[in-house]
Amino acid sequence: MLSSNSNKSVKSNNELIWFHKWILERLTYRYLIVDSGYSKSTLERKFKSYLQNAPAFQIKSHDNAHLVVDGTYFKGNLCMVLYYDYDIKYCQFYRFTTKESYTEIKEDIQNILSLGIQIKSITCDGHPSIIKSINDACPDIIIQRCLVHIQREANIWLRRKPVIQCRMYLKGIVNKLHLVKNNNDRIYWINLFIKWYDQNKSYINEQNINLETGRKWFKHKDLRRTAIMIKRAIPNMFHYIENPQIPNNTNSIESFLDT
Questions:
Q1: Three-state SS at 135
Q2: Which residue segment(s) compose the domain that 116 sits in?
Q3: What pLDDT is recorded for position 50?
Q4: According to the model, what pLDDT value does residue 252 have?
Q5: Measured between alpha carbons, how far is residue 63 from residues 85, 121, 207 in Å?
């Protein structure tokens, strides 16, 4: 027969299961109420307690760390920013917040540095707040752009099955990113993109104009958005070739969250 302490432990573990489903699987209260038998107010109270009493992470001192930084968004205006040490497979720091804020991320990076982590590189998705935070907090650190994110965003903006030839060609170039393994591959891929850009520059920058108001806007905004994203990212896309210790994507954070 289970003791009282054992029953409490089982109950506590069961309650954490619902918290896990809410945070990591993004299940709604509507589902959790039915599955757990708890009311919404009870679940909210327990989840708030877990968040307020989250265990403090122990910083592990590490020279030349290659961090992966990314924000994961959940329902209810909740964002968790993780600072994952790719080399030692350890989350050095995290923050629960409402968005990827420049001020908070800059403060987090400064705190990580002050606590003994010597950062060599940071791999991120290119969110403007993260890039600006890194440049201001530690301008000498290598920024590696997540290639998976670049591919994902480009494929969304270019559509699943583009019918215009220049869109199709750019989609093909983007989908070759995972094949870039060495410096020759890098040169070949960049030349492909630059050649495409030069050939289609006038089309990319075509504008419509309202003759009454004089207001102008770009005619092919999603194509232009994709081209500009890639053009700006190129200087930080291929650092992993020179240093194989640098991860070229943020997938390790997703794997960490799934554990």
A1: helix
A2: 62-142
A3: 77
A4: 87
A5: 11, 11, 50
